[in-house]
Amino acid sequence: MPTIKPFYGIRPNPDYAGKVVLDVENLSLDEAKIIRQENPYSYVNMLVPKLDNLFLRGSKNELAFKKINENFEEFIENGVLIQDVKPSVYVYRISKDGKTQTGIWTITSVDDCLDNTIKKHELTKPDREAVLIDYLQQTGIDANPVLITYKPVAEIDRVIDQICQGLPDLSFSKNDSLHELWRTDDSHNIQTIVDEFKKLPSAYIADGHHRAAAASLSALKQRQFKPGYSRTEEFNFFTTVYMASNQLKIYPFHRMGKDLNGLTSTEFIETLGKHFELERSNCAIMPERLHKFGMYISRQWYKLTLKTAKNDQSNAVSDLDVSILQELVFHDILEIEDSRVDPRISFVGGLVAPDVIEAQVDNGEYAVAFTLFATSIEQLIKVADQGGVMPPKSTWFEPKFQAGLLIHKINQV
């Protein structure tokens, strides 16, 4: 079903790759400035540029975008970034801690998002979309791919394996991970990949809903000024990495509550007993199956087991642990109506150590913490197939991509 095509990828010169690519997950402005000062080759120069002269005409945003474009052209001219001379499809592989994840890196038609060919499971925020749209339209740089998953296909796996038989075009290590990129401009390989993706019964956004939405809305805006558009122009496509569902790893987002809504710890625990069986624990609880939860409060861990499991086959969202916790605890007890915007709830995602969670409760920053078992890929697919929307921060997907590893220019002719 997805419509994909090869593109003229822009990637780091192998001599600079480790210095160029940037982990943007949870990157703060202060950290970005430090990286920029210490590493002139970092992709951070396309995100947080140094403004040489603030007295030039234009707003700060206008000057920043102008400088980003100048920096990008300078990286190309100096050979820090190189552009492939033929439209290509790429295979990307990341290896870390003994686990290898491999997928197809290509570009996908925005129409597949607009008509729900590629299914979604999250809502997006207009203000965040607006920032991303502005960046795309002012720079034309599309450098952070949307992660899309699908049920494994033997023929796609075969082509990936064939391409990976050769030496990678790019290989470097960073942050304990090995990154490898293979390029193919072979017409037979490309056609096979394109055809196989057209046959997919379904595909699902795993990570990057805001980036997909921004690319789609940006394309719609550009179409208004190009009445003769053919839907094949670069601005009608966005960068994507397709990984089969057996390649992905999902970690949970744990929940942190700022206060107990006026209850004492004892009262809060007693109230929880209506829906959960509680058991004290001498060690941290990181749940190993669905409908089991950990709770840390007043320097004590508890194991929580849901007394009555929901099993509404017509509503996959309601059976998610994140939904159960939101409804029975954060909504009913703590009176948090919308966890997307309420400052009384926070989230900790990925592989987080229990002592990190404990410290934030012990120092009074939070009153209570809940740990969860990860949402499964099967649950995600079921929710998306039903047209459902998961609560915010339901899934933390690996891999996370390095910005600047492979760039698509949407304003390229």
In words, what does this structure look like?
- By secondary structure, this protein is α+β, with helices and mostly antiparallel strands.
- It starts with a strand and ends with a strand.
- It contains 12 helices and 23 strands.
- Strands 1, 5, 6, 7, 9, 10, 11, 12 and 13 form a 9-stranded mixed beta sheet that branches. A 6-stranded antiparallel beta sheet has the order 16-18-17-20-15-19. Strands 2-4 form a two-stranded antiparallel sheet.
- It has helices at 17-20, 29-38, 60-77, 111-114, 126-139, 154-163, 187-199, 209-224, 265-272, 321-331, 354-362, 377-385, and strands at 4-5, 10-12, 22-23, 81-83, 89-96, 99-109, 118-119, 141-142, 146-150, 170-174, 177-184, 203-207, 237-244, 249-251, 253-257, 276-281, 292-297, 300-306, 345-349, 368-371, 396-398, 402-403, 408-409.
- The chain has 2 domains: 4-248 and 399-409, Conserved hypothetical protein from pyrococcus furiosus pfu- 392566-001, ParB domain; 253-394, Conserved hypothetical protein from pyrococcus furiosus pfu- 392566-001, domain 2 (2-Layer Sandwich).
- Pfam families: DUF1015.
Structural topology:
Blueprint: E1 4-5, E2 10-12, H1 17-20, E3 22-23, H2 29-38, H3 60-77, E4 81-83, E5 89-96, E6 99-109, H4 111-114, E7 118-119, H5 126-139, E8 141-142, E9 146-150, H6 154-163, E10 170-174, E11 177-184, H7 187-199, E12 203-207, H8 209-224, E13 237-244, E14 249-251, E15 253-257, H9 265-272, E16 276-281, E17 292-297, E18 300-306, H10 321-331, E19 345-349, H11 354-362, E20 368-371, H12 377-385, E21 396-398, E22 402-403, E23 408-409
Parallel strand pairs: 7-12, 9-13
Antiparallel strand pairs: 1-6, 2-4, 3-22, 5-6, 5-11, 6-13, 8-23, 9-12, 10-11, 14-21, 15-19, 15-20, 16-18, 17-18, 17-20
